[in-house]
């Protein structure tokens, strides 16, 4: 929109409004699920007041499930606090325009209490806290996320009215790496490829994937908080663009018996002062520095207890199953996709690829978990075992990941590590979110139960 691209200063916002090109500012905050929630503010009100002082929003936004239902038991309990407000304070470094929202500017916000203290359970703040701990060691985290999604020929209203059954994928067969057979998929994904750079995301690669109708778009890595912000913008924008195109898409980890949607996270560290790549050691036989070896060892040590932050829903664990081409054990390997921690690249590009999160992962929480685990390994100088060679999915000697949300919740609450790394309030808050998800699932009657029991039981 501007000569400097989609990112805006307050002066540019004022000028765009005066020229009649921008009417309002969407101020958004990521909720527990990583979805964007917020309000539209008139540009004059934003400029004169909200940009500096923030504006109030109901604190229940961090105490709800997918249905926006809230209940007691959260560390930040909306009922106990009388459904009062916290303050959404815009992060002006994220102020931008979005091609699919003409006439509006967009900015992400941090949640703070009226006195100015950060809301500790807010996903963006959880990541900020871990990045601050990393900074104390003179380190900065860079991340990239790879999101897969399924595209259907029907729109969201049709899908809703038909209980999400009978939907037709936008391709008819496995089109992994294919350059043909994408005719019904291409119009939507072309818009995504074209418009996301206009929102400040740098496109690197895009291709069709294994499941019929499946696609993956990869954007360039950035500092971890920026990557998570862009991830949230992409998911929200992709759904809006799909709706405009008369299509539906889903990021859910396991839509059916076919391949699931992953969200692989690439993570590296650099020196905070000089930007040096600290994970590589050209003199080491494996090219890995001692710091990287501790960093990877921390991932393995903490993974079982932090799985909840990477796989937060019942459906998450249906992707993490044998035969689903998603990790089931706890191991690391060099360029080994059967391991949850895959070490890839060399020199300045040396990094880990965390393969546990699915398309439903809240990026702020998943990256915070990986940073916290790596930092734990560094601080405790954990030794790194030998890399796994061969198929870690089929090796019975490999320790198992949690196989259900119930097990992940138990590990999160009772293992002790999560409390050391994140604090009691964060642990209890996200434990309640998991219990709410489990309660909703356990009270639902599924199609599987009807087919199995309607006539024969």
Care to describe what's here?
This protein is an alpha+beta fold. It folds into 2 domains: about 10-120, Ubiquitin-like (UB roll) (Roll), CATH 3.10.20.70; about 130-400, Creatine Kinase, Chain A, domain 2, CATH 3.30.590.10. It contains 13 helices and 15 strands. It has helices at about 10-20, 45-55, 125-135, 155-160, 185-195, 225-245, 290-310, 315-320, 365-380, 405-415, 415-420, 425-445, 445-455, and strands at about 25-30, 35-40, 55-60, 85-90, 95, 105-110, 140-150, 205-210, 215-220, 220-225, 250, 265-270, 330-335, 340-345, 350-355. Strands 7, 8, 9, 10, 11, 12, 13, 14 and 15 form a 9-stranded mixed β-sheet that branches. Strands 1, 2, 3, 4, 5 and 6 form a 6-stranded mixed β-sheet that branches. Helix 10 runs antiparallel to helix 12. The longest helix is centred in the middle third of the chain and has 21 residues, at about 225-245. The radius of gyration is 22 Å and the shape is globular. The model has no long low-confidence stretch (mean pLDDT about 95).
Structure summary:
This protein is 34% helix and 19% strand.
Helix content: 25-40%
Which CATH architecture of the largest domain would you pick? 2-Layer Sandwich
Distance between the termini: 62 Å
Counting helices, strands and paired strands, the structural category is alpha+beta
* CATH C-level class of the largest domain: Alpha Beta
Output the CATH homologous superfamily of the largest domain.
Glutamine synthetase/guanido kinase, catalytic domain
How would a textbook summarize the main sheet?
9 strands, mixed
| Secondary-structure element series | HEEHEEEEHEHHEEEHEEHHEEEHHHHH
Are there runs of 5+ residues with pLDDT below 50, and where? none
């Amino acid at each position: 929109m501007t000569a400097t691209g989609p990112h805006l200063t307050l002066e540019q916002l004022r000028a765009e409004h005066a020229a009649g090109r921008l009417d309002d500012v969407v101020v958004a905050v990521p909720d527990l699920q990583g979805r964007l929630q917020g309000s539209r503010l008139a540009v004059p009100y934003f400029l004169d007041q909200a940009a500096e002082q923030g504006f109030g929003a109901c604190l229940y936004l961090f105490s709800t499930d997918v249905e926006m239902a809230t209940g007691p038991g959260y560390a930040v309990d909306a009922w106990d606090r009388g459904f009062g407000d916290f303050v959404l304070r815009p992060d002006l470094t994220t102020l931008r325009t979005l091609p699919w929202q003409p006439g509006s500017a967009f900015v992400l916000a941090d949640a703070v209490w009226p006195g100015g203290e950060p809301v500790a359970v807010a996903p963006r703040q959880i990541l900020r806290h871990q990045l601050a701990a990393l900074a104390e060691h003179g380190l900065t985290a860079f991340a990239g996320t790879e999101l897969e999604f399924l595209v259907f020929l029907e729109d969201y209203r049709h899908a809703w009215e038909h209980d999400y059954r009978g939907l037709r994928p936008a391709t008819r067969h496995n089109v992994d790496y294919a350059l043909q057979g994408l005719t019904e998929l291409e119009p939507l994904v072309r818009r995504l490829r074209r418009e996301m750079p206009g929102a400040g995301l740098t496109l690197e690669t895009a291709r069709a994937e294994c499941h019929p109708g499946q696609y993956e778009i990869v954007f360039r890595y950035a500092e971890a908080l920026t990557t998570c912000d862009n991830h949230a913008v992409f998911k929200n924008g992709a759904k809006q663009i799909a709706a405009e195109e008369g299509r539906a898409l889903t990021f859910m980890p396991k839509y059916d018996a076919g391949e699931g949607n992953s969200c692989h996270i690439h993570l590296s560290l650099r020196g905070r002062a000089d930007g040096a790549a600290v994970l590589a050691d050209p003199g080491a036989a494996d090219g890995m520095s001692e710091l990287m070896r501790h960093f990877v060892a921390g991932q393995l040590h903490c993974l079982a207890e932090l799985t909840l932050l990477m796989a937060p829903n019942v459906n998450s664990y249906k992707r993490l199953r044998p035969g689903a081409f998603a990790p089931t054990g706890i191991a690391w390997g060099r360029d080994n996709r059967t391991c949850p921690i895959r070490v890839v690249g060399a020199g300045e590009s040396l990094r880990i690829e965390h393969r546990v999160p699915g398309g439903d992962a809240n990026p702020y929480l998943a990256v915070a978990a990986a940073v916290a685990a790596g930092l734990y390994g560094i601080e405790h100088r954990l030794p790194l075992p030998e890399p796994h060679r061969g198929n870690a999915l089929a090796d019975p000697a490999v320790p198992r990941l949690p196989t259900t949300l119930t097990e992940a919740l138990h590990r999160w609450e009772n293992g002790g590590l999560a409390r050391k790394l994140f604090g009691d309030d964060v642990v209890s808050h996200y434990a309640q979110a998991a219990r709410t998800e489990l309660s909703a699932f356990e009270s639902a009657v599924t199609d599987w139960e009807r087919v199995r029991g309607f006539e024969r039981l």
